[in-house]
């Protein structure tokens, strides 16, 4: 049986120096690539594009969609004006990923969202984002390395995540935004001890899970985190 192809979303930047200054480059953290390989999948990078037909073909070509982390999402998408704490936004990435999510879910292909990707999944389905966690009492933007898990996350019973890890799981944390209102059809399945939403799961899709932390940075020191990627990749296996 062929290994499942997992599409991974990318970000972009402008080259600052040299003869290529001003040119766009697209990229993704190698940690996502290694996590998919470790889970038994084949990573395929999905560059940011605008053509609707080509976006549909991107989803048609893969067996699952991994929404990677990155910058903030345009608040206008969920009906708000930008707060002054809003970070860098990339409108073309937002538009591309919203279309990818809708196409993947319509095709019953599994979707996994990490950090920004968790928020993007929620926004794509009609939810909203807290633009800045001013009221959070816990640290959500740790200064320690990514493989350090110092953040307790409480899991909801009878959820996919609880099936993997039980009642709680220790995670890393690198975000200043989080889901504010979950979209229709998304169940909140994890929270930090200060109430911040840490994970959502789609109630009807075969697999659509968003987590606010970065499990791809933890898989070598905490093999339990690899279980989430394995569940995702196994769902994506070709019939």
Automatic annotation (TrEMBL):
GO terms for biological process: polyamine catabolic process. InterPro entries: Class_I_gatase-like, Peptidase_C26, PuuD-like. This is Para-aminobenzoate synthase, amidotransferase component. One of its GO terms (cellular component) is cytosol. Transmembrane segments: none annotated. Signal peptide: none annotated. Its EC number is 2.6.1.85. The keyword Transferase applies. GO terms for molecular function: 4-amino-4-deoxychorismate synthase activity; gamma-glutamyl-gamma-aminobutyrate hydrolase activity.
């Amino acid at each position: 049986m062929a290994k499942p192809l997992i599409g991974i979303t990318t970000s972009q930047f402008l080259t600052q120096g040299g003869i290529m200054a001003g040119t766009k480059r697209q990229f993704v953290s190698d940690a996502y690539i290694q996590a998919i390989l470790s889970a038994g999948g084949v990573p395929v990078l999905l560059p940011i594009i605008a053509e609707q037909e080509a976006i549909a073909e991107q989803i048609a070509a893969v067996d699952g969609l991994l929404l990677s982390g990155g910058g903030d999402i345009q608040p206008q998408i969920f009906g708000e004006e930008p707060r002054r704490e809003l970070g860098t936004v990339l409108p073309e990435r937002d538009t591309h990923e919203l279309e990818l999510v809708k196409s993947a879910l319509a095709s019953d292909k599994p979707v996994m969202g990490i950090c920004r990707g968790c928020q993007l999944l929620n926004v794509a389905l009609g939810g909203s984002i807290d633009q800045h966690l001013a009221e959070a009492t816990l640290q959500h933007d740790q200064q320690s390395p990514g493989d350090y898990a110092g953040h307790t996350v409480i899991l909801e019973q009878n959820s996919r995540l609880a099936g993997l890890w039980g009642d709680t799981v220790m995670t890393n944390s690198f975000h200043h935004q989080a889901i504010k209102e979950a979209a229709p059809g998304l169940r909140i399945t994890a929270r930090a001890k200060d109430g911040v939403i840490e994970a959502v799961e789609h109630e009807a899709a075969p697999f659509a899970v968003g987590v606010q932390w970065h499990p791809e940075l933890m898989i070598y020191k905490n093999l339990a985190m690899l279980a989430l990627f394995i569940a995702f990749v196994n769902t994506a296996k070709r019939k």
